Amino acid sequence: MSACRSAPGSVLVVDDEPDMRTSYERLLRRLGYRVIHADSRAAALAAVQAEPLVLVVSDLRLGDGSGLDVIAAARAAPARVPSIVVTGYLSAESRRAALEAGASGFLAKPFAARDFTALVAQVLDAAR
């Protein structure tokens, strides 16, 4: 995992709930990552285009649209950024839609911190 921590770039966290963004940031910073926040689909799409990212973590449902648009943009980026979709609306359909959009991982809210950090490690290891 230390190789991931020394990688250039940042993790983009996309969630319209401030408490969730803070939780993600705290967990990711403990792992040594820089974190960029976006509270909307529009801000996240701009960040995907402007920032060197190593990972995108996005809520499925955002106030101004779908987090799947952010996932698709990350997948289409020249560096093909891996991504994780997190949702409080777990269903087989939402899981399938996330994977079809290009998500590398999927996690249901609420989740344990260790489950989140393990998924981050797994996704980043697979992306290498």
Short description:
This protein has 128 residues and is an alpha/beta fold. The chain is built from six helices and seven strands. The N terminus is likely disordered.
3D architecture notes:
This protein has 128 residues and is an alpha/beta fold. The protein has one domain: 3-Layer(aba) Sandwich (Rossmann fold), CATH 3.40.50.2300. It is built from 6 helices and 7 strands. The chain has a 5-stranded parallel sheet, with helices on both faces. A hairpin with a 2-residue loop joins strand 4 and strand 5. Helix 3 runs parallel beside helix 4. The longest helix has 15 residues. The chain is globular and about 30 Å long.
CATH homologous superfamily assignment: Response regulator
List low-pLDDT spans.
1-7
User: What is the CATH class?
Assistant: Alpha Beta
Major sheet characteristics: 5 strands, parallel
Shape, please? globular
Q: What portion of residues is helical?
A: 40-55%
Which structural class fits the helix and strand makeup? alpha/beta
Assembly form of the protein? single chain
Mean pLDDT: 91
Instruction: Give the strand tally.
Output: 7
Adjacency order of strands in the biggest sheet: 2-1-3-6-7
Number of helices: 6
Radius of gyration: 13 Å
How much of the sequence is in beta strands? Answer: 15-25%
CATH architecture: 3-Layer(aba) Sandwich
Our measurement of the CA-to-CA distance between the termini, rounded to an integer number of angstroms, reads 11 Å
